[in-house]
Amino acid sequence: MQQPFRIIIAGGGTAGWMTAAAISSLYKDRSCFQITLIESEEIGSVGVGEATLPSIKSFNDQLGINEAEMMRRTQGTFKLGIQFTNWGKRGASYIHPFGVYGSLQNSSDFYQYWTQLSSKKAQADISKYSFAVQMAERNLFKFPTKNPENIESTASYAYHFDAALYAAYLRELSETAGVVRINGVIEAVNNDFDSGNITSLLLRSGQQLEGDFFIDCSGFRSLLLHKTLKAEFEDWSNWLLCDRAVALQSEQPYEIPPYTRSIAKEAGWQWRIPLQRRAGNGYVYCSHMISDEQAHESLQSELPGKALTEPRFIKFKAGRYKKSWQKNCVAIGLSSGFLEPLESTSIYLIHIGIVCLLRLFPIPQSGQKDYSNLSDEYNRLIDNEYERIRDFLILHYHLNDRTDSELWRHCRSMKVPESLTKKIDLFTRRGYSESFKYGLFSTPSWLAVFNGQGLSQKGVDPFVSALPLEYLESTLAEVSSLIEQGLVGASTHRQFVAQYCGIQI
Ligand SMILES: Cc1cc2nc3c(=O)[nH]c(=O)nc-3n(C[C@H](O)[C@H](O)[C@H](O)COP(=O)(O)OP(=O)(O)OC[C@H]3O[C@@H](n4cnc5c(N)ncnc54)[C@H](O)[C@@H]3O)c2cc1C
């Protein structure tokens, strides 16, 4: 009888359990695919990572997860975007929404319409023409419709949830699907002398776990990819200077905003993530500019309610491993890199890592153990994602008029990656922003930050400047009126979550 293909997942945080749940749902026959996950209750998980991006919904849908049940089990709330306060300049605020500006019929040109009109006479801010922003600012929530004619189809949403509860939920699904979980500490990783492939993990208990394919989900420790296979780290901390965070949970005020908050501070920024019955908070800061105690004090002074937990300090370095799939091992999650949580991209990167891995999965058809062709393509796809996200994050720091602290002065004048310089130039010249079919971030996201942080375009797309002003004016007026009509009768976010999940909040 043929041996089953043995997949070993090292680590059981969000990355480990998302990976286990996804692989076990696609490869169901345990006599062919054996999946074992090792996690250590003693070590625990990073314990943060509660704001997501809209693609998480498709991940959950693929697993057949019932949304209301998942939200009930994880203290879930809806997220329509991120509100950035004091970014760009102190006192300013804007929302980076999920979804597009204008209606779906005119969304690709809408920003240009608005810019052209604004150059002729004063207009309301572009955010007035985003259904997602208008819902968010009024604390309302409604599901997007599928009908592209309807303005309500222009918004999209993600979730805030308790990361530990989400991992526990996925663990339940995975174990039901036959994933074997071992609680133990990995003490050594063995590899084959000739091929370099990993062969087994040795646990502190003395148990040896042999495998054919290994997935490193061990978090910042990167036990397999970095410590064993010596993957090279590409350090981006010269652009993304924050290297520490202090996190704690607090009471959540009565109203639950349907968006994450990011408040820029002297040495970094503070997050506020509203869950059903508590809030997640943290200060991400640059340790050269402020001490841990100062960061904690600053966080504590701006909590939305009473602190419920002790502060937790986390160190990190922005960057990623150049090749997150090497030999018979792929790293998913923090073990493959981390770019700081400003745009909630880590869980997204886990999801994309899983999707790419499954597309290129090394099915043992011929007993072939050379995976280099598969891994090259995987690494190319993941590289693209990381680099685009990196540029987008740097943009937030770079585009600022703040003079109040070293961090902001430094970031404004620093030399950014050439790829970002080009994006800024294209936008400034013509309001042009690169669009692509897959991956982050698409045009409306770039527009939100360019506009929200005060970068204006000098020229307008000539196809738009040739249009009669009356036409542009009537388009904007129509969108604005459709948005107002769409919001009539919408529930508050709090009411919506309570009703949808069938709970009292
Ligand atoms: C400050 C901060 C804020 C963040 N906010 C967000 C956010 O809002 N949105 C978002 O998408 N992402 C966010 N992230 C990232 C997010 O936390 C992670 O992407 C996510 O939690 C996945 O982590 P992980 O599973 O890779 O690692 P971890 O959660 O650290 O899990 C590692 C696992 O490996 C196990 N392990 C490690 N060593 C051993 C060993 N020797 N033996 C056995 N087991 C071992 C641990 O027990 C654990 O189970 C944030 C990260 C930080 C640092």
TrEMBL record:
EC primary class: oxidoreductase
Coiled-coil ranges per UniProt: none
Enzyme Commission (EC) number: 1.14.19.-
InterPro entries cross-referenced by the UniProt entry: FAD/NAD-bd_sf, Flavin-dep_Halogenase_NPB, Flavin_halogenase, Trp_halogen
Spans traversing the lipid bilayer: 7-27
Keywords assigned: Membrane, Oxidoreductase, Transmembrane, Transmembrane helix
Name this protein carries in UniProt: Tryptophan halogenase family protein
Organism from which the protein derives: Cellvibrio fontiphilus
Cross-referenced Pfam families: Trp_halogenase
Top-level taxon: Bacteria
GO function terms (MF aspect): oxidoreductase activity
